[in-house]
Amino acid sequence: MTDPRSDQQIDSGKRTWIIASSCAGAVGAGFVAVPFVSSFQPSERARAAGAAVEVDISALKPGERATVEWRGKPVWVIRRTPEQLAELPKLDSQLADPNSLRKPDEFTPEYARNGYRSRKPELLVVVGICTHLGCSPSDKFVPGPQASLPNDWPGGFLCPCHGSTFDMAGRVFKGVPAPDNLEVPPYMYLSDNRLIIGEDKKA
Ligand code: FES
User: Fold this and answer.
1) I need a labelling partner for 124 at 20 to 30 A (CA). Which of 18, 60, 130, 200 fits?
2) pTM score, two decimals?
3) What pLDDT shows up at residue 141?
4) Do 46 and 31 form a contact (C-beta atoms < 8 A)?
């Protein structure tokens, strides 16, 4: 068996995905794990077909993000901290679509139409592609004043291309170019520590 880490890159410089190139070029490029998630290893054949991918999240600690590739897209899996979860209900008035009512069939499956946008509060699963023009937002998990962000920044994501901002549930803030919240892909739990991304119905 090949080393599952052989096609992974733990390189923060590679975390910026531009979907226009990743669609064509990412198959075979492996997946980017920040931090390392031990047993993500879909077969090359499964990846090429855009099949659902399984992810072992047992190594993912609170406040960390892993990125897996599904259908040529980066999918983020983030284990949110209690502090990050506590911020979410306070942000509604600052958000463009706090309840994920816009195009729900496209962006938010039914099980994620809640204040956390997730099946279980602590774990966020979203496609890491900005809904403006497809750049990949950067992690800005640390709250507080910092470059390019408001002084009362609660923690979330910043898209470097045109400045769109999203909270820790992938909900877009008002007054930025991105029109919609980040997409929640189909997913479900196979067990407490295993997810499948790309499938959300039991056979
Ligand atoms: S692509 Fe993200 S703000 Fe324009």
Assistant:
1) 18
2) 0.78
3) 97
4) no
Ligand 1 centroid – CA 162 distance (Å): 5
- Count of CB atoms within 10 A of residue 150's CB? 12
The β-bridge partners of 55 are 195
Cβ–ligand 1 distance for 177 under 6 Å, the answer: yes
Note if 132 is an active site residue: no
178: nearest Cα among 136, 116, 118, 139:
136
Q: What Cα–Cα distance (Å) separates residue 93 from each residue in 44, 98, 171, 176? A: 44, 8, 12, 14
Residue listed under structure tokens 């669609």? 23
Give the integer Cα–Cα distance in Å for 75 and 90: 26
**Nearest C-alpha to atom 4 of ligand 1 is from which residue?**
162
pLDDT at 80: 98
Catalytic residue among 162, 174, 175, 193: 162
- The secondary structure element, H or E, covering residue 46 is helix 44-48
Report the distance separating Cα 188 and Cα 75, nearest Å.
14
Residues of the chain with pLDDT under 50: 1-39, 203
Other Cβ atoms within 10 Å of 2 Cβ, number: 7
Q: What is the pLDDT of residue 18?
A: 36
| pLDDT given at position 201 | 82
> For residue 172, what pLDDT is reported?
98
Ligand 1 atom index nearest CA of 177? 3
